[in-house]
Design brief:
alpha/beta, 5 strands
Length: about 110
Amino acid sequence: MATVELEAHVRDEAGVAVIELVGDIDRSAETALEAAYDQVERAPSVVLDFARVPYINSTGIAVIVGLLARARKGGQELSARGLSAHYRQIFEITRLSDFMTILEEG
């Protein structure tokens, strides 16, 4: 399986910082995720948009945990949206969903 290098685009949606993720989340995604998060670290609420993420591996989950730790340390609310049913289940199994809000599409 060919890896699709992650791109992370930051935008504002009605006062909420959104990081749109495009590509695979694995070890190589850490730099892009950290750079995007640096742009929003002062926002009170951050949404990670996974709608265009086809693949997340265990190292990618660890990178997301690192972002969650940064958000919690900074007093931010971190949410996820656009997760496929499979990755929603992974977030539940790994208990990420205990520490971040999983938003319903709608």
